[in-house]
Amino acid sequence: MKNTAFRGAYTALVTPMKESGEADYDAWRRLIAFQIEEGIDGIVPLGTTGEAPTLDEDEEERLIKIAVEEAAGKVPVIIGAGSNSTRHMVMYVRRAKDLGADAALVVTPYYNKPNDEGLVRHFEAAAAVGIPVIIYNIASRTGRNIPAPLMEKLSRISGIAGVKESSGDINQMGDVICAVKIPLAARGKEFAVLSGDDAFTLPLAALGGDGVISVIANLVPGKVAALSRASLSGNFAEAGKLHYELLPLVKAAFIETNPIPIKTAMGWAGLPAGPVRLPLGKLDPKNEAPLRAAMEGLGIKMR
Predict the structure, then answer these.
(1) Does the structural domain 8-234 have CATH classification 3.20.20.70?
(2) In this structure, how many other beta carbons lie within 10 angstroms of the beta carbon of residue 37?
């Protein structure tokens, strides 16, 4: 199993699409190259931002192969591998491992609302594949939160490397750091606590977290990486400046369902993104003005 310390700014990559609706693999290569050139610490394909629920398995496999090839060991590749079927999830985690990914991001099973025993067994099955597993806790999409006591139990599973915390609750994130990360560190085991919300990059780092899996980094990876570095190094004056500089874009990026706004913004900036796939639709025209204003505030040139 690869032993990677997951720390810093990671981009939850959009999946570029052609106007015809097909995945755009050339644009995918350009997007990954752009991310690496801008100094991002890692990439996360096939997550929520990547519209994974709408991708076919052959598309997913090709996207993974290209991501690993383009990253070429320069940055870690964490592949979204979740499902509300444990059997399917195991297949996706195994595929990520076989294709050379550094880790798998496994979301809490959605719709099923599993009990604690089911969750433990689900993540045991994921970790048994033999690739580091990062738990993705996002109750707003799954209907099931993982509180700190249960996270502590899950952290005992060999191969569980950390959590992407998208609970939206900074108190819970602090509880996870206090009850899970710090005790494990005292025993010589790393457990990454990464924010799944751009707005919490700075506060989570101040509490002892490890970074962010970012949506806005699709558009401004260099600035998100700089925010993460300043936050993690304890340079809170610089981090605070960057936090408030980026905050209007963070808010605008979630003015509608992710990734509708960020793909729209990328298109305006001339970056590879393309349209979203159904059942997502185009950005409501009434939301264009605040998104453009946020981009203008960052000096981003638009078409």
Answers:
(1) yes
(2) 10
The SS3 call for residue 273 is coil
Residue 282 annotated in active site = no
pTM of the model: 0.95
Rounded to an integer, what distance in angstroms lies between the CA atom of residue 65 and that of residue 70? Answer: 9
Catalytic residue among 10, 97, 136, 263: 136
Is residue 164 annotated as part of the catalytic site, yes or no?
A: yes
* Beta strand ranges found along the chain (DSSP E): 8-12, 42-44, 78-80, 103-107, 133-137, 160-165, 192-195, 211-214
**pLDDT (0 to 100) of residue 3:** 45
pLDDT category, 52, cuts 50, 70, 90? very high
How far apart are the C-alpha atoms of 272 and 267, rounded to whole Å?
A: 7
Place of tokens 């496994």: 106
The active-site residue out of 97, 164, 181, 223 is 164
4 pLDDT more than 80:
no
Q: Is 283 helix (H, G, I), strand (E, B) or coil?
A: coil
DSSP 174: H
pLDDT of 2 higher than 80: no
Number of H helices, E strands in the chain: 13, 8
Say what percent of the chain tops pLDDT 70.
99
Question: Radius of gyration of the chain from Cα atoms?
Answer: 18
